[in-house]
Amino acid sequence: MTIRDYLNQHMRRSTISCWLMIPPAAVALFATSHPILRNTALLVAGICAASNIYHNFAARCPRCRTRLLLCVAINGVLLKIPSWFNSCPTCGLSFDTQLDGEQRSNHALQPTAGRSDV
């Protein structure tokens, strides 16, 4: 998987969660006389918004940890990163570079070579 594929995956998920937020938000707006329906719709819209924010913040450059989708600052329209966005604006890492492994923000740190667990 290349960095471009990784970013496109996050962009798609972010955009789709943004689109999925619109119907429950509209229901919450117009269902003022039904508090249970309104609160449920607000909860669903909030979950979609949280998913959108997570996917925008989670896509980071593997070298310098820059939040790449926030650099593009486009959401709600695109299902992939723009063609002009070819490298990290901070460190210049090409998006055609292969990722070493799956990127997770909460994975356990491994000891580096030459160090012991004392």
Question: Can you walk through the features of this model?
Answer:
The protein is an all-alpha fold. It has a domain at 3-72. It has three helices and no strands. It has helices at 3-30, 35-58, 68-72.
Features:
3 helices, elongated
Helix-strand layout with pairing:
Layout: H1 3-30, H2 35-58, H3 68-72
Radius of gyration: 19 Å
Quote the average pLDDT. 80
Q: Shape from CA axes?
A: elongated
Number of helical elements: 3
| Head-to-tail CA distance between termini | 36 Å
Q: What kind of sheet is the major sheet? A: none
Structural class: mainly alpha
DSSP, total strands: 0
Low-confidence segments, given as residue ranges, are none
Strand % is under 5%
- What portion of residues is helical? 40-55%
Order of helices and strands: HHH
Short overview:
With 118 residues, the chain is mainly α. The chain has three helices and no strands.
